[in-house]
Amino acid sequence: MYTQHFALSEPPFSIAPNPRYLYLSPKHREALAHLLYGISVGGGFVVLSGEVGMGKTTLCRALLDQLPEDVELALIFNPRLNSRELLAGICDELHIAYQGPKASLKQLIDALNRYLLDAHAAGRRIIVLIDEAQNLRFDVLEQIRLLTNLETDQAKLLQIILVGQPELNLVLDRPNLRQLSQRITARFHLLPLSLEETRDYLVHRLRVGGVSDPLFSGAAVKAIYRRSKGIPRLINLIADRSLLGAYALGRHRVDGSLAKRAGLELLGKGIKAQKRWPKAFLSMILISLFGLLSVVALEPQWGFSEKFKDFLKEHPLTIKDAVDAPRSLSDIKEERRATTAPVPDLSGDPPLMSGDDFAGWLTTPGLGRHEALLSLLMAWHVTVPKTSADPCESMKPLELRCQPLQIAWQQLLQLNLPAVLEFARNDGSRRFLLLSAISDGQPVFTDDQSTRTFDVVEVLSRWTGRATLVWKPPVKAQTSLKPLMSSPLVPWIRQQLGVIGGPGQEMIYDEALVQKVKAFQRELELRPDGIIGVLTLMGMAGHGQDAEVPRLIQTDSKGQGG
Question: Which of 93, 232, 417, 437 could form a cystine bridge with 542, CB 3.0-4.6 A?
Fold first, then answer.
């Protein structure tokens, strides 16, 4: 891990939306002020738009931390819903009871209206935040507009925050949505950072990570700005790769050439062949990634230094490795065609494939969400006809549930469940792959024809952060369990965490169990609040003892990696 090399307390350039690392540029401060103003006005719509990777999700999380205690929030991360599904999702988020799949649109609206009236009478306000709102259909947007008609004589009962890409503004400006546009009380579009803001952004994240020394030269900052175009997510990716490269080369500062090379490796250079990192440098990066993911996601009790020494013993680097000239993509492909016999893979795991292979695989047909979900269901030993309109709907009789998430990579690994990941291609289209396992810290993907392992850096550079998992809720009970509540869910939680309840307390979520849950949440990098939500339950299932649950990494009877 390069964190020790640079005396960092943690990796400062993770793409996870951590509010602690939020850099409030003048643009972000203005955006946050617009959101807070819109919420203070009450009712109607608040709109936040910006390019992919501009920090909209992180800004929203910062907004949530500043919401008054009298505000309840419903988060909708999957906008590809019809009107009924959207209302059901809002009711689920607010824990409003309804008649399940049999509930009509009117029944859902009536149930929501009753809840809003009760909340208003109790002095509480309700806000619904919809992410990726540019994907909402017209009829769903119209239904959302009608929801803002729920009101008393004095106040609107519901406020909607729409967050999306620039296309969202084009959607809202359509003539047939002018009634909705007229109800927007605050709107802001996030623009990329300037060169000066990029420099401040890098300094800010390093300081939060525990280092005040400038690790990036002026030339490095300019190189990162040119390649990222001021988009924070791309700045993070290039800066992280640059620090990893400097660590691998034994340097304590990133210069312009190293930052430029990191940007080229991550983002490419049009249709021209990219320059290749020296093989020794690639090996060092691979070593570091193996250690990083093993320590964080698999075996936190192991030290990275021992793994590093073992790897060097098994894979000694020679002078020739370090001085070989970079090869072009055509040279590599020619070598592969000339190879007469494959190198045997004694480990039994799929061979590690390059970033070019991964980019090429994303261009192949048949990598739609539907096909990936079918592969995920097969991992659960569930077979659904390929003609099924919605594989997730087909699971309901089996008491399995599809769970879409916007999640950080390390958190996804901690859940330890197979997942369908969404990837972005250069042309803006999306591809979907089943993450079926983790092998030596590297992601393993499976489709209906093959299983392949790819470099985690290449995978993360194209992953949108969206995943769909399948899990089986343990019992039919509320999933937002709070301390001192009684629930049939509690005995299952006790079993997973090995906590025995006192006489008559087996069903009570008591203080001892709360502390165990908080410790487990810290391990999963969730907020350790002791509240049993969906992610906590999914993590328990991923580390539990049910042999029928497929896992990214198999565990022994104690839940440890084996």
Answer: 417
- Edge-first strand order for the sheet with 419-424 is 352-353, 451-454, 442-446, 430-439, 419-424, 463-471, 401-406
Angle at the Cα of 82 from the Cα atoms of 388 and 534, rounded to 5 degrees: 80
User: Residues 399, 401, 404, CA angle at the centre, nearest 5°?
Assistant: 175
Count Cβ atoms within 10 A of the Cβ of residue 137 and give its class: 0-12 exposed, 13-18 middle, 19 or more buried. middle
- Whether 194 contacts 155, CB under 8 Å: no
In the DSSP assignment, the letter for residue 19 is G
Task: Report residue 503 CA to chain centroid gap.
Answer: 41
Strands 44-50 and 158-164 come out as parallel
Beta bridge partners of 125: 71
423 close to 460: Cβ distance less than 8 angstroms:
no
Domains of the chain in sequence order? 26-190 (3.40.50.300), 194-327 (no CATH), 352-471 (3.90.70.10), 474-562 (1.10.101.10)
Please provide the distance, in angstroms rounded to a whole number, between the alpha carbons at the two ends of the chain.
22
| Token couple for 306 | 């021992």
Q: What is the pLDDT of residue 284?
A: 47
Helices (H) and strands (E) in the chain, counts: 24, 12
The pLDDT tens digits for 338-368 are 433 333 333 344 455 544 577 778 887 778 8
Q: Do residues 129 and 75 lie in contact, with contact meaning Cβ atoms separated by under 8 Å?
A: yes
CA distance 452 to 431: 16
pLDDT higher than 90, residue 238:
yes
pLDDT of residue 352: 52
- Count CB atoms within 10 A of the CB of residue 184: 15
Between residues 517 and 330, which one has the greater pLDDT?
Answer: 517
Structure tokens, 385: 């006809």
